[in-house]
Design brief:
The structure is a single chain. With 352 residues, the protein is of the alpha/beta class. The chain contains eleven helices and twelve strands. Helix 4 packs across helix 5.
Length: 352
Amino acid sequence: MRRISKLTRVAVGVASLALAATACGGTSSENNASDGESAKEDLGLAIAYDIGGKGDQSFNDAAYAGLEQAQKEYGYKTADVEPTEGETDADKEQRLASLARQGYNPVIGVGFAYGPAMEAVAKDYPDTTFGIVDSVVEGPNVASLVFAEEQASYLAGVAAAKATKTNVVGFVGGVDIPLIHKFEAGYQQGVEDTSKGKVTVVSQYLTQTAEEGGFSSPDKGKAAAEGQIEKKADVVYQAAGLSGQGVIEAAATAKVWAIGVDSDQYGQEALAAYKDYILTSALKDVGGAVYALAKSVEDKKPLTGTQVFDLKVDGVGLADTNPKMAEVAGLTDAVAAAKAGIIDGSIKVATE
């Protein structure tokens, strides 16, 4: 994603409120001063991408948007590093350690796959603040940036239930793991609560492991969506990273609705040919979380511990940029009511 979503402002506010609870973690200038000098260092935020890398129009690009904002605001040097095919935890450790050694601060691993590597590396660089998206890693200099994906997915389910005409909707998950189960669980519940059980959800996971390409294979996503559309699904929600582009292509080709994920995919340039069929997207403000951590380090009050981004702080949400969304009878009101219910606690959203 190449722009900052409206969620970012609130996410930064939440991060600011959490500063009082933070622990240690130095600024990049402290890590890199030499010859007894303490001059301002020009190395700032660095991110290491998850599978699929930059250009996925989704998860990784959302993280890059946060980096862009920090770079623009603070005028320092940033870095963003791509993953390699078939890499090991040792490869990830080397990547994170290299960024910390060069003086970047904070250093963020984008994706749960960085968990073991970050746990190993963070303790070796106590003056560097580390961040990990979608996982919890314990450590006095680690911020775990996690999201209530199930809440955004519930709203997506409400939208799908209102938009379907066949009473069949689809879900395509990239990899069969607990994180993606949260997306499916929220979506299923949103559909069922809205339709009172009249709408069927057809679900499919592309692979059992990330190494098999579940998050990085548009062809797999396209084939899965085509199979669901053959079963009469006329709305398909994907939580599949780069593979989701194939889901969106299949939906547009069949002239049915797709629901995007993480970023507002209706506005993505690479998906412009399909935008008329992207009903909405379940937003996850990864960019806001990335920027919030960078800001906390720049303010010399680095965030650490578990930082939760949910509907209450607009850390997740549902995009409304496609004007056709407002044309679906009852959809806007139903989504608004569901959001209010989740925030006030009257709606409890399952995570599995």
